[in-house]
Design a protein that fits this description.
The protein is an alpha/beta fold and 145 residues long. The protein contains 8 helices and 5 strands. The chain is globular and about 40 Å long.
Length: 145
């Protein structure tokens, strides 16, 4: 596993330790992490702070040209909201830890020119399966089911 997915998993574990949902993400520009985050909906009482949104927020206000040279790593397949942000900022590549527990908007992203790589990482799968089993109502609230 590369260092960037490892960093995203570390973010997911941090979110879980804080009582939140174990989804983490990092934004990488030219081989360096420029934004890292995890799902903070529970911790912040937020409607929008998914892992990808948190990582983008922490990467900061930058021109689209900056984001065009980035790769976003996320432990779970991106939902419609996060996928919209990826397309809006023209991030060309997303590396996904797993999509077995939740299938996000990968086809839609690809239809907008985003390269998708899915790792099916067992650690990512295990984190989500355990969380979904232990906290089904919180998961349903987060993903809008």
């Amino acid at each position: 596993m590369d260092e960037f997915m490892r960093a995203a998993i570390d973010e997911a574990r941090q979110g879980l330790a804080e009582g939140g949902i174990p989804i983490g993400s990092v934004v990488v520009h030219e081989g360096r992490i420029v934004g890292r985050g995890h799902n903070r909906r529970v911790q912040q009482g937020s409607t929008v702070l998914h892992g990808e949104m948190d990582a983008l927020e922490r990467a900061g206000r930058r021109p689209v040209s900056f984001y065009r040279a980035c790769t976003l790593y996320t432990t779970l397949s991106p939902c419609p909201m996060c996928s919209g942000a990826i397309v809006l900022y023209k991030i060309p590549k997303v590396v996904i830890g797993e999509n077995r527990t939740f299938q996000g908007e990968e086809r839609w992203l690809a239809s907008h020119g985003v390269a998708i790589e899915v790792l099916q990482d067992e650690e990512c799968i295990g984190l989500m399966r355990e969380f979904m089993t232990r906290h089904p109502q919180l998961w349903a609230e987060d993903i809008g089911e």
